[in-house]
Amino acid sequence: MFATDNGSDRATSTEDYQNTCVEFITDISKDYKDWVDRYQLTGEENNSRKTSIDNIAKTTNIWILKYANTIKKVDIVMNDGVSKMAESTAGYPFKFEVFVNNMTRYAVHPIGEVRVNIRATPRQGRLIRIGNYQKNQLLLVNSSSPVNFAVSSESLNGIDILNDYIVIDAKNCQKHDLISFTIIVEEYNGSYVTESRGYSTLILVS
User: What pLDDT score was predicted for residue 4?
Assistant: First the structure.
């Protein structure tokens, strides 16, 4: 899910756009928490998802103000935050985490090859694999400088436990560039997909 960037066309300065997007993130976080209530979850799960949304909104706004010094970077951070809030709203029915430099969700990495560790464990009797973000698109990647990525074919096949790497080539990035990517993992029973979830990560190139 991505926010419209029409506001960037009307922004008079990067600072103006930063402030507009900070307000947007704060406002939309309330909408996502309303959606959590509609799921009628247990009290503990309800609180957990809302806390996650609040933390994402707070961290996203910090990154917008601290690291997003161009309108393009503001869009990258804002849309990453929206994706993360949507993911937290939906929750994870199976274990799924993504690590960069032993950090999750928000990471710092030097220029060069970024090794992204994907770990996922399906529920009993099911298999797990990396799926497409959408048809003919494996990952969703947004970056302030061009990047490429490579995925091992084994990760695209169903296995009992997923613990593999995607390598992002960030050699053409500059210091303080931003990279946001979303990985989709599918849980399936060998015949059809039973659950699918995304996990978004934002990287500051150092």
Answer: 46
pLDDT tens-digit series, residues 171-205? 999 999 999 999 999 999 878 899 999 999 999 99
Q: Which of 163, 179, 197 is nearest to 114 (CA)?
A: 179
Taking the C-alpha atoms of residue 54 and residue 155, their distance in angstroms, rounded to an integer, is: 32
The radius of gyration of the chain from alpha carbons, rounded to an integer in Å, stands at 17
Summarised one tens digit per residue, pLDDT across range 154-175 is: 788 888 999 999 999 999 999 9
Domains of the chain: 6-90 (no CATH), 95-205 (2.60.40)
Dist. CA 41–CA 39, nearest whole Å: 6
Task: Specify the DSSP class assigned to residue 152.
Answer: -
Phi, psi of 205 (to 5 degrees): -80, 125
pTM to 2 decimal places: 0.90
Question: What are the CA-CA distances from residue 58 to residues 73, 103, 188 (Å)?
Answer: 17, 17, 34
Q: Torsions phi, psi of 70, nearest 5?
A: -135, 160
Structure tokens at 189: 């029973």
Report how far Cα 196 is from the mean position of its chain's Cα atoms. 14
pLDDT in tens, 115-158: 999 999 999 999 999 999 988 888 999 999 999 999 888 788 88
8 Å CB contact between 45 and 53 = no
Return the pLDDT at 159.
87
